[in-house]
Amino acid sequence: MSEPLVKDPGDKEQVEKAEEKERLREQIRAQAWRAILNSPDGRQVLQEILQRCGVWTNPYDPTNPHNTDFRCGEMNVGQFLLKQIDVFHADALWQMRREETKRLEA
């Protein structure tokens, strides 16, 4: 469990410092995502992870509900990644798909 950002939520100074700290964390996180999405290698790795997570397939397994549950969990991770891609570089997903098509055609 993580520590709370402030010890006294009624202390305006603590709250402001915590908010600034959180803004900085988000900026660092956004920079990291953009670095990954602006890199051909980063996009290729994400494409492979998305495929592994089955975001473009049906998770249903009529022979085993546990497999369906497991695949839905994988898909959930993939959907989280898709959302992050959309938030930080919306065009990157289409770029990734085009790059994957070129790799398959080569």
Strand and helix layout:
Layout: H1 12-37, H2 40-52, H3 65-88, H4 92-105
Architecture overview:
The protein has 106 residues and is mainly alpha-helical. The chain has one domain (12-105). 73% of the residues lie in helices and 0% in strands. The chain is built from four helices and no strands. The chain has helices spanning 12-37, 40-52, 65-88, 92-105. Helix 2 runs antiparallel to helix 3 (65-88) and helix 2 crosses helix 4 (92-105). It is flat, with a radius of gyration of 19 Å.
What series of H and E elements makes up the topology? HHHH
Tell me the strand percentage band. Answer: under 5%
The class by helix and strand makeup works out as mainly alpha
- Uncertain residue ranges: none
Please state the overall shape, judged from the principal axes of the Cα atoms: flat
Instruction: Please tell me the total number of domains.
Output: 1
SS element count, helices: 4
Portion of residues within helices: over 70%
Distance between the termini: 48 Å
Whole-number mean pLDDT: 92
Rg, Å, rounded: 19 Å
Instruction: Describe the main β-sheet briefly.
Output: none
* DSSP strand tally: 0
Top keywords for this entry?
4 helices; mainly alpha; 106 residues
Summarize the model shown.
With 106 residues, the protein is an all-alpha fold.
